[in-house]
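Assemble and predict.
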Amino acid sequence: MIFPFATLEAKWKSHSQRPFLQLIKLFIDRAFHGSGDSESEELDFGTGLVLSLLALPGAFYSILLFDKYGSFLQWMHGDKHFDVLSIALSDEYFLIVLSMVVTGVAVVWRWDSIFPDRRDYANLVPLPISTRTIFFANLTAIFLVAGLLALDVNLVSAFLFPFVATASQETALFFLHFAMVHAAVVVLSSLFSFFAVFGVVGLLMSILPYRMFRQVSLYLRGLLIAYLVGVLCTSFAVPSLVGHLPKSPVRFLPSVWFLGLCQMLRGRASPALAILGNLGLMSLICLVGCALVAYAVSYRRCFNRIPENLDLIASNERPIARRIFASLDRIVLRTPVQRAGYRFVLKTLFRSERHSLVLGGFVGLGVVLASQFLFAAFSGQEMSVNAGSPAILSIPLILSYCVIVGLRFAFAIPAELRSNWIFKLLLDRSKPECIPLARKVLLTFVIPCVIAGIVPFHRYLGGWTRAALHAWVAIAWGILLSDILLVRFRKIPFTCSYPPFRESAIMLVVCYFLGFFAYVVLTSQFESWALLNPLRMLLMIPPTLGIWYGLSHARTGMVEVDKEVIFEEKPTRGFEVLDLQV
Amino acid sequence: MPEEANLYPYLSGYEYLEMVGLLRGMPPLRIKKRAEALLELFSLYPSRHGGMSSYSKGMRQRILLISALIDDPKILILDEPLSGLDVTSALILKNLIKALGQKERAVFYCSHVLEVVEQVCSHLLILRKGEVIAHDATHVIQSDRSSLESRFMDLVEAGDTEKIARDIICAMGEA
């Protein structure tokens, strides 16, 4: 008997053309691609790449655990009969937090795309589709996106982490049980995070006037991101506090509730953890219910009033931003092109979803790596013992590396090519302003954060000398990395067509890995050794000067035509005809 | 000022003008003063901090015009500046061009709308397939004709446009 594939395909085709399914597809697409305001012909990241980026942190973390759970290494450490479930508790907690954070950040990111907007209203209301159908289609899309996010964020780690953690165990049953419990808990925690943010949006839209919602929205998003990053960065400390339950304040953290659920399903929960596990499950059910009610009310309230809100989209001027730019104009930005370019770059970077997604991805990766290093440094020990350890010293280097590389990568992505005429018209192409501008953008992101983060922290842990030396190394290395990445840079960021990424992708990834190794691992190891006797820091000066000399030599050796500003990136060719005939 | 209002969607109208002013080397205080005054005059002041992605075509066109005027240029090149403008803004622009002419500013006005050209231009240069076919004061080129349009038809030796219009109607009626 032949299975009727053709009939099924035809049936699916006719079924998928129904308005309800088309609407669901539209809303899901919008959740991933945004409202497409820019009308540009540029590269779209695509759903596949977005999903891959979201799955990356969990996958990366799981790979880093090979070292910890390797049975040979455990044997070398003298642990012949180690308890996987006890050892895995801290990593389990971190992965729960990670799944909540990645999902939460993704929902905060797509905050504006959850509800139908003006464009939807203009396109859908004139069609013969009832508002009830639009409502249910949007609701279904939200559920599908929630499920997709929860699965995607944990897809790789749900398989890889149990595989790594139980590699030393002999029974497949143990692996299966471990994996299923882990998968269930991280997916549920992802859903919790999704519906928590979704519920907050719905609640705010239900109770606040539209104009106030728009104003509050920005601050609340910032607050939520700060909370999520804070939870991620402190996740190394929480597992040790779980033993102090039920009195410990960590009982208020939803991530601990899901850790309780995990331990409950594994039959390892203390009474306090079991109560928190039940609380996690109950709160998820309540949260979904509340979020749905808030959504229904806000939908009814907002969707029908969209035409009245047309004139309320203008935002306010921000005096703080104006003051910051004025200060930068006086101190850092020396020429009119730098002043104009700096404003353009910063505003585009934070407002363009494409660019902020790329930067956010790199920063997120940096935060995950830094958390892992922090976790390794403080795990079960007093803070002062490990203060000069390579792991602690590497944290600002990891973050600055990811920020600088992320920004440099984002600079190559065009914003709106058709609008570049203004730069083409007003820029003097022979004046090399691109590198100073790009360098200043990179360094104004890194140097203030390095100073604000490192100096007080290391002053507290090891005194002024250590703080100053560590800050000096981080700043000097940041400047050198920026200069290395900008050696042949001759574009105003975001104004040039795409470089041939595909041709050099593998080489680029290899370079990033090697760069990370040199910038973070080698430097922090050296610094840890050198800080024992600060005079050893002088050994850093010759390589720093050597790299700096090499870079300036490379720049002066460039012919003038290679310094001119470009707006079109030509693909590199295997050969070129020189046309030497007279 | 180009015909197509291609502007960066991630900037607000005010931010775009600030960027253009800085690129032209204007001091920030002067940019602020001029931009606010011009935005007010072109009825864009209330929406100056809104993203340009939400602007209508006419609003973008007015932003382009302000960006061209912001540093008080000696020479102004306008390519179809009325495209997308509302009636009031179009009237303002026509009067502005005349006023700029009186203020001894050179305005190159490129357009296919001959009624407007007739009203605002003191001199004309007519191109046909890249060749200059007429170049003189407007009243000289216009000579004794009632409108610039009819004189233009003589110069470019176009066919009978009324007949072509009738033929189109016939073609539309055919099966």
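Chain A touches chain B through 29 residues (CB under 8 Å).
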